[in-house]
Amino acid sequence: MRLAIIGCGAIGSVLVEAICGGSVKAELVALMDIYPERCENLARSFCREFTNTAICRDLECLLNAKPQLVVEAASQQAVKEYIPTILSHGISVVVLSVGALLDENILKAVKEASRAGKARVYIPSGAIAGLDAVKALANAGIDRVVLKTYKNVKAFDPETLRRLGFGEVRERTKIFEGRGDIAVKLFPANVNVVAALALASGQIPWVEVYADPNLQRNIHEIVVEGKASTISIRVENVPHPRNPRTSYLAALSAIQLLKELTEEGSIAVGT
Ligand SMILES: NC(=O)c1ccc[n+]([C@@H]2O[C@H](COP(=O)([O-])OP(=O)(O)OC[C@H]3O[C@@H](n4cnc5c(N)ncnc54)[C@H](O)[C@@H]3O)[C@@H](O)[C@H]2O)c1
Q: Domains of the chain: which residue ranges?
């Protein structure tokens, strides 16, 4: 499969290494970034065999490389700017910056372009687990989705903490409780988890956020109550060994999705 990636940052680098290292069986036809030198560096570090990879700054260059699948690992702005156009060219996409789809206008544009181009939008489970069961449960009705996130206090913007009245946090402290759409405005780092849960369940999650000065991992606890089951999910994410800004699991989740989309004759496990 001919594959292109938008975003040569933390996640992009993990994906390029997996593709050029051979664990994802795909031909990397283009890399794109507003800082194309980042893509050049990745190609040079990991892709000695892929001398034909186009290094792009704009979408025209990427489309000229004729990818069959494009991975977005850049930003919400990139989803808004490029994804509808890519879909309308009949090219399927994998979207990492899923938080963009909490915006109804962007979601509508993406859905319409997907229909028009007969192309699919894939959203990996990212930093959480259990979206398969949440989607299944939604068929019988979901009453409530609750997300509790625990992070080291250093993971939060100090100005936001001060504004919320938590200038000094000495022990585990609940710094927010409320609707997910408000939570993501205050804590943009949570936006992808909230959006993925909202898309899978059809409900805006209720969110609690905790700051903890002693925590080394990012912990998400999710409870989904529905007619058929109550599902409890807990993930403790460690940062990627080389890219501390990204949960290792989020990058691994994208790699797994790419493997499933590119391998022929594979068995698909999980819904
Ligand atoms: N779904 C999940 O669970 C999950 C987990 C972690 C990160 N993410 C999201 O994935 C995205 C990438 O994460 P990352 O840690 O690799 O970020 P990063 O900041 O390390 O890398 C992003 C790269 O994309 C480039 N970029 C940004 N906007 C662009 C645009 N409009 N056009 C072209 N290039 C652009 C940047 O220059 C940068 O090189 C982010 O939006 C992040 O929120 C999702």
A: 2-126+250-262, 131-238
